[in-house]
């Protein structure tokens, strides 16, 4: 049976009814809309019913009704309506299911990107486009922050709105851009690199994606709630965020739960896929480093993410249910929140770095035409970062008032983590030595990353030293540091990855001139924006302030102007990505002459990736060795000819 | 690697190091040191900056050399040599960074322990944070309270930091030392001021709407001037004057961080303008005195249109004495403009 006939045979039951009924009851946006409303009403009904039965007044407590109805039940209704649970529901009800049903797989038109799709390649693109939308929104919020900070005094926003702007900016960039953008790239690339037809759990994969827009819309929508968005920073420290905030804080608590659930499901999926679905001959020591990077990242996500879920639940309970987990007056412990929060959020820094390290290794090896220098040490240093990453969380709390003996041990582990990170940087430099360097856009972003991440890493070592941290903590020096790590680090690698795999994803080449222009604008704009922040911080300007002392005015004006240029550079990228997708030059299967498996199939790859299972016979980085091969496989056919029996 | 390559690399590293050193030295990075602890902290900062400059210069040199020398010629599709690693190099760049970070850890631990040592008989000051103001109490001077931190030069000071509502953080950039104020905890912070002058006190932990304006001053005085100030203040406490203490209550509780009041030279914009109290009271259809009093003790009772609820702390009813409250209300009514 061909894939096309499978598609036609898909919805046998609704086909017997009228078109209107199919529109209303079939999986899709219309069903998602009414099921969202229905479930939200049921949620509100549960709240009112329970309060009425218990005799609590008012029956309609607005906070709890909004929380249960709009933020918990409504999204579940949306997921059910769009079709995430159809297969599992049929299965649970004992209705006939077809385990080999591929009707929800692959994309033939743009509409297929707007429904529940089980193809890891479609999901990868869905992830990337969604995260780009939130990247642009988050970036615009940052522009508004910089507009307010261009001059001392309060010009455009009242403090509540301003605090909301930078809180939502950080939350979007972390939870809706960097983490899921890496998940999107890996979603597309990892199964291909492993020689697998898809991820281990395609339906779970689809569900992980659809959780994301829910989380993102929730964060942005918090601006519309009476009282304004959550305004306590993305760290959500209590008791400020649990008892002194408007309803918007609950939107943050709950959005983090949805994004976190998405992360955990994807990470489990990657772990199972990487452990069980490697092509014959692909031992762990023959895996590309990008796969290693996502393996280690997934370990971090699975172990750490439940901690932020816990911290946000307890904070929210303090807010809406008057519990006292973190409320001192009733015996709670505010620092407890910080310990639980950072037990996730420090590993989260590596969740936002390790996939980028993987992209670096692929790009630098390919464009240097040389094997990765010290492959095994590179993989082992990833594992070392995972282990050490769990023992450094309290370095965010050196001045928090926690047990002071904890500071020196946490400083030692923090400084030690510089060692495996240094190994990676030195190994990339050694990989380039004596190579044949090709400066295509992905390579430029890789080199930009290498230089910027060294600065971010060194300022990280400075902050790791307790006395330095005591001075710099909560100042603009920290703002500079995290942007050198997360923008100069993570975002540069995301762009390197997007340009590198753009031909594979879209089947088109991007415009190289525009790509290089984008790099230079970003690189220069980035440094002009964030480097002066180091000086502001050491001089004494606190972060998260709507107003500042007049002596900081000149540098702030400079930073604001530079940040607008940096923001504008994204327009070049978006223009390039959109126009090249429509009318770029057709991409060959392997434009970069790379050795890993994803380049050995057509661009874009066939629906089920490989016609024959590849036999892996050697290293993925055998550049310069005459006749070296990573895997043996026969050339694949065009997607239309794929048959499934 | 040939000898010529090493020399070229060192040359580039020297230039890169020179430029980075200029960036480190030319702008003013650190505020003027005003305490012994800041001096030690600044030493660690410069120690790590020097290490950073050396590492950055070496990495930059290798990168610049590679970009210049190993660029593929147009049309050259060949590969580089298949070098897979070098055990000696790999051990080297594991061990050397290990030694460097160990040295940073040792220096830091020593400075940390010396900065925490307050010696015998330090001057004790209780620092209390409340949204959005600082209060400094001198328990050894009959609980004298001030809204600016006055310290004698050269004497070891032990600050006990606490908060009445949310988490704040006490920092004087010139003193270097910093400590969060956490409700329920009373951590200490040790400072030995060693330079006369007036320095900013800032809150560096986001504490709500008035966070940016939660500032005060630290004044380092000669020991003689400090003793004189202590005495004069104690006299003032003994003979309170209603209008004076109303102004003091206004100042000490940080009202000016959020409110405008011309008489107190306060220009806050977070809450309603207190120069227009009569107008607001008329709007709320309440007599002026009771309106002002209720607005202080129970801020949510009447919310001025255009301002959000739950912003003004509801703790003043409990924290102010009846006398203080009456003085404050009297002061506000008598200082209003229209």
Structural description of this entry:
- The complex is a heterodimer of chains A (645) and B (338).
- With 645 residues, chain A is an all-alpha fold.
- Chain A has two domains: 22-92, no CATH class; 119-583, Cytochrome c oxidase-like, subunit I domain (Cytochrome C Oxidase, Chain A), CATH 1.20.210.
- Chain A has 22 helices and two strands.
- Chain A has helices at 3-9, 12-15, 19-25, 29-54, 62-82, 86-92, 120-149, 159-194, 202-221, 240-243, 248-276, 289-320, 334-351, 354-368, 375-389, 407-416, 418-432, 441-464, 466-472, 476-506, 512-539, 553-583, and strands at 615-616, 631-632.
- In chain A, strands 1-2 form a two-stranded antiparallel sheet.
- Mean pLDDT of chain A is 91; it is low at 1-15 and 636-645.
- Chain B has 338 residues and is α+β, with helices and mostly antiparallel strands.
- Chain B starts with a helix and ends with a helix.
- Chain B folds into three domains: 3-67 and 87-115; 123-238, Immunoglobulin-like, CATH 2.60.40; 242-335, Cytochrome Bc1 Complex, Chain D, domain 2 (Orthogonal Bundle), CATH 1.10.760.10.
- In chain B, the strands form three sheets. A five-stranded mixed beta sheet of chain B has the order 3-2-1-5-8. In chain B, strands 4-10-9-6-7 form a five-stranded mixed beta sheet, covered by helices on one side.
- Chain B is elongated and about 90 Å long.
- Chain B has helices at 3-25, 36-69, 87-115, 223-238, 242-252, 277-283, 288-297, 316-319, 322-335, and strands spanning 123-130, 133-138, 144-146, 149-152, 157-163, 168-171, 178-181, 188-191, 197-203, 215-221, 260-261, 266-267.
- The model of chain B has no long low-confidence stretch (mean pLDDT 88).
- At the A-B interface, α8, α15, α16, α17 and α18 of A face α2, α3, β7 and β9 of B.
């Amino acid at each position: 049976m061909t894939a096309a006939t499978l598609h036609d045979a898909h919805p046998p039951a609704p086909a017997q009814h009228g078109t209107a009924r199919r529109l209303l009851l079939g999986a899709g946006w219309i069903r998602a809309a009414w099921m969202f409303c229905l479930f939200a009403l049921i949620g509100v009904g549960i709240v009112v019913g329970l309060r009425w039965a218990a005799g609590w007044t008012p029956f309609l407590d607005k906070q709890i009704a909004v929380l249960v109805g709009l933020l918990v039940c409504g999204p579940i209704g949306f997921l059910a309506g769009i079709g995430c649970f159809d297969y599992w529901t049929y299965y649970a009800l004992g209705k006939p299911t077809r385990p080999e049903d591929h009707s929800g797989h692959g994309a033939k038109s743009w509409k297929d990107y707007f429904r529940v799709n089980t193809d890891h390649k479609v999901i990868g693109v869905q992830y990337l486009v969604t995260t780009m939308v939130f990247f642009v929104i988050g970036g615009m919020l940052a522009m508004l922050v910089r507009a307010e900070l261009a001059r001392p005094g309060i010009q455009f926003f009242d403090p509540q709105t301003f605090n909301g702007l930078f809180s939502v900016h950080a939350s979007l960039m972390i939870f809706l851009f960097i983490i899921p953008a890496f998940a999107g790239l890996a979603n597309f690339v990892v199964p291909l690199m492993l020689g697998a037809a898809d991820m281990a759990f395609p339906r779970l994969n689809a569900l992980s994606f659809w959780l994301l827009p829910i989380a993102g819309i929730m964060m942005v929508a918090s601006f519309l709630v009476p009282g304004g968005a959550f305004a306590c920073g993305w760290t959500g420290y209590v008791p400020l965020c649990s008892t002194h905030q408007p309803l918007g804080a609950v939107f943050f608590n709950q959005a983090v739960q949805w994004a976190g659930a998405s992360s955990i499901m994807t990470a489990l999926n990657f772990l199972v896929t990487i452990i069980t679905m490697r092509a014959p001959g692909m031992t762990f020591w023959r895996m590309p480093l990008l796969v290693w990077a996502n393996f280690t990242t997934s370990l971090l996500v699975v172990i750490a993410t439940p901690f932020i879920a816990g911290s946000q639940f307890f904070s929210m309970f303090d807010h809406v249910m008057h519990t006292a987990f973190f409320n001192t007056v009733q015996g709670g412990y505010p620092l407890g929140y910080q310990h639980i929060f950072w037990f996730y959020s420090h590993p989260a820094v590596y969740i936002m770095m390790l996939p980028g390290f993987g992209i670096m290794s692929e790009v630098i090896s390919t464009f240097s035409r040389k094997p990765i220098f010290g492959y095994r040490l590179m993989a082992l240093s990833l594992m070392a970062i995972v282990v050490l990453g769990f023992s450094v969380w309290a370095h965010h709390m050196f001045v928090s008032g926690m047990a002071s003996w904890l500071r020196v041990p946490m400083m030692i582990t923090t400084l030690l983590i510089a060692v495996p990170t240094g190994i990676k940087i030195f190994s990339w430099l050694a990989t380039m030595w004596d190579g044949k360097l090709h400066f295509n856009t992905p390579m430029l972003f890789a080199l930009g990353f290498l230089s910027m991440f060294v600065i971010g890493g060194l300022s990280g070592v400075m902050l790791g030293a307790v006395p330095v941290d005591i001075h710099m903590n909560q100042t603009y020096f920290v703002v500079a540091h995290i942007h050198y790590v997360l923008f100069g680090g993570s975002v540069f690698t995301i762009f390197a990855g997007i340009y590198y795999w753009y031909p594979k994803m879209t089947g088109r080449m991007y415009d190289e001139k525009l790509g290089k222009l984008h790099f230079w604008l970003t690189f220069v704009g980035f440094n002009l924006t964030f480097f002066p922040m180091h000086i502001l911080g050491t001089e004494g300007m606190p972060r998260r302030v709507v107003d500042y002392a007049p002596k900081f005015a000149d540098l702030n004006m400079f930073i604001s102007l530079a940040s607008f240029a940096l923001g504008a550079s994204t327009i070049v990228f978006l223009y390039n990505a959109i126009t090249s997708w429509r009318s770029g030059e057709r991409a060959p299967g392997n434009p970069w002459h790379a050795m890993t498996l994803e380049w050995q199939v057509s661009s874009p790859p066939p629906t089920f990736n490989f016609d024959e299972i590849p036999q892996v016979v050697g290293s993925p980085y055998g550049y310069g060795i005459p006749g070296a091969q990573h895997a043996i496989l026969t050339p694949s056919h065009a997607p239309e000819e794929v048959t499934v029996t | 690697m040939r000898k010529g390559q090493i020399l070229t690399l060192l040359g580039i590293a020297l230039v890169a190091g020179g430029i980075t050193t200029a960036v480190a030295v030319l702008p003013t990075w650190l505020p003027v040191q005003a305490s012994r602890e800041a001096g030690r902290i600044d030493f660690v900062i410069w120690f790590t900056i020097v290490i950073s400059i050396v590492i950055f210069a070496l990495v930059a040199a290798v990168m610049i050399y590679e970009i210049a020398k190993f660029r593929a010629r147009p049309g050259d599709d060949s590969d580089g040599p298949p070098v897979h690693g070098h055990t000696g190099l790999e051990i080297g760049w594991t061990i050397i960074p290990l030694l460097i970070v160990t040295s940073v850890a040792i220096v830091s631990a020593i400075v940390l322990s010396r900065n925490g040592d307050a010696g015998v008989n330090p001057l004790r000051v209780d620092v209390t944070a409340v949204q959005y103001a600082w209060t400094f109490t001198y328990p050894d001077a009959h609980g004298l309270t001030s809204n600016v931190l006055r310290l004698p030069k050269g004497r070891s000071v032990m600050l006990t930091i606490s908060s009445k509502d949310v988490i704040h953080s006490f920092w004087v950039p010139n003193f270097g030392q910093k400590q969060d104020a956490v409700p329920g905890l009373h951590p200490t912070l040790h400072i030995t001021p060693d330079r006369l002058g007036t320095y900013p006190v800032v809150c560096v932990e986001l504490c709500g709407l008035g966070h940016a304006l939660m500032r005060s001053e630290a004044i380092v005085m000669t020991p003689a001037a400090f003793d004189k100030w202590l005495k004069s203040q104690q006299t003032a406490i003994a003979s309170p004057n209603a209008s004076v203490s109303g102004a003091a209550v206004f100042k000490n509780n940080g009202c000016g961080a959020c409110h405008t009041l011309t008489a107190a030279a306060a220009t806050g914009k977070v809450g309603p303008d207190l120069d227009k109290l009569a107008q607001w009271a008329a709007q709320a259809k309440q007599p002026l005195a009771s309106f002002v009093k209720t607005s202080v003790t129970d801020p949510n009772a009447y919310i001025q249109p255009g301002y959000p609820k739950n912003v003004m702390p509801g703790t003043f009813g409990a924290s102010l004495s009846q006398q203080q409250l009456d003085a404050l209300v009297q002061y506000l009514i008598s200082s209003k403009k229209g």
